[in-house]
């Protein structure tokens, strides 16, 4: 998390060290309790309309452009992304339709969903939410840059996944009065947020995040990858539990989170050394690769 997000003057939270819970799929009763605990915002019409336009045999870019132009901030985001280093030396575009052609429907829908999700999260301080989404966008961009160097990991998929994989954290903040205290204490003690959630609350942000994207109609592979991205055994799970496509997205994002924490001179409260090492091994990366990626991500974030 960004220091601006976590720097709250709160009382310390006692942190014990029991093992995190197993990977088992939540039972129907457990899911009902989670839904009763945390309010998951309903999918807005703008997201349903965008997905319907994108899922046609020939995606309706005119309909997507109409949705986007209704929000000036969304238009600016599309143009910035289309002109970013993610697309290398491609000629700059200033026209929205050309930007949509360059980005492709998956990333276009991703930006629409992101904008709608931000708007749906009420009752959260605006500055906190802005910093959270700024960090999420940086992470998505870093993950997509890493994916470009990996065989079989589409950069747009990596961007999509990384942007939404922690989307339930604001919902946890919204629901639990002491959650900001927990965020601050994890930052101060370099503790892993997920492990502390397991010890303190009836649900965790990966489980709530999986329910959120499932309710909003995002792909099943994304749901599983979000739900399992902090599982201690994620890199040894069978294909029937987590397909390789989802594991690759998790690995790319784990590396991106670690790099971003280093670049912001923050403790790694998201991944931890064990999962980071496993992500590096899974992707076949070494320290030289990491240094090169770090420089690439730093340059991209400075644009």
Provide an overview of this structure.
With 303 residues, this protein is mainly α. It has 2 domains: 1-11 and 28-40 and 125-303, Hypothetical protein af1432, CATH 1.10.3210; 42-120, no CATH class. The chain is 64% helix and 0% strand. It is built from 17 helices and no strands. Helix 3 packs antiparallel against helix 4, helix 4 runs parallel beside helix 7 (105-120) and helix 14 (220-228) packs across helix 15 (244-263). The longest helix is centred in the middle third of the chain and has 22 residues, at 126-147. It starts with a helix and ends with a helix. The model is unreliable at 1-22 (pLDDT under 50).
What is the fold's blueprint, element by element?
Blueprint: H1 3-6, H2 28-37, H3 45-54, H4 61-69, H5 72-82, H6 96-103, H7 105-120, H8 126-147, H9 155-164, H10 169-175, H11 179-189, H12 193-200, H13 205-215, H14 220-228, H15 244-263, H16 272-283, H17 287-301
Helix pairs in contact: 3-4, 3-7, 4-6, 4-7, 5-6, 7-9, 8-9, 8-15, 8-17, 9-15, 13-14, 14-15, 15-16
């Amino acid at each position: 998390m960004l220091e601006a997000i976590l720097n709250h003057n709160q009382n310390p939270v006692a942190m014990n060290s029991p093992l995190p819970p197993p990977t088992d799929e939540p039972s129907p009763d457990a899911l009902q309790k989670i839904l009763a605990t945390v309010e998951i915002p309903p999918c807005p019409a703008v997201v349903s309309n965008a997905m319907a336009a994108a899922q046609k045999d020939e995606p309706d870019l005119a309909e997507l452009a109409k949705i986007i132009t209704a929000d000036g901030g969304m238009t600016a985001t599309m143009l910035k992304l289309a002109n970013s280093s993610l697309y290398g030396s491609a000629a700059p575009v200033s026209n929205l339709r050309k930007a949509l052609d360059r980005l492709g429907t998956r990333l276009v829908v991703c930006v629409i969903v992101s904008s709608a999700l931000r708007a749906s999260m009420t009752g959260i301080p605006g500055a906190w939410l802005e910093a959270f989404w700024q960090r999420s966008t940086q992470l998505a961009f870093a993950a997509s840059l890493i994916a470009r160097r990996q065989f079989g990991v589409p950069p747009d998929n990596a961007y999509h996944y990384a942007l939404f994989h922690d989307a339930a954290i604001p919902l946890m903040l919204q629901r639990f009065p002491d959650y900001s205290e927990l965020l601050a204490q994890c930052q101060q003690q370099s503790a892993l947020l997920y492990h502390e959630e397991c010890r303190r609350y009836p649900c965790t942000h990966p489980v709530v995040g999986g329910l959120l994207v499932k309710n909003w109609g995002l792909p099943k592979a994304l749901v599983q990858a979000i739900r399992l991205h902090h599982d201690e055994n994620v890199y040894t799970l069978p294909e029937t539990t987590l397909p390789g496509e989802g594991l690759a997205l998790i690995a790319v994002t784990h590396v991106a989170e670690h790099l971003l924490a280093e670049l912001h001179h923050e403790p790694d409260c998201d991944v931890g050394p064990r999962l980071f090492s496993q992500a590096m091994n899974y992707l076949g990366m070494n320290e030289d690769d990491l240094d090169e990626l770090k420089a690439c991500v730093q340059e991209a974030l400075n644009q």
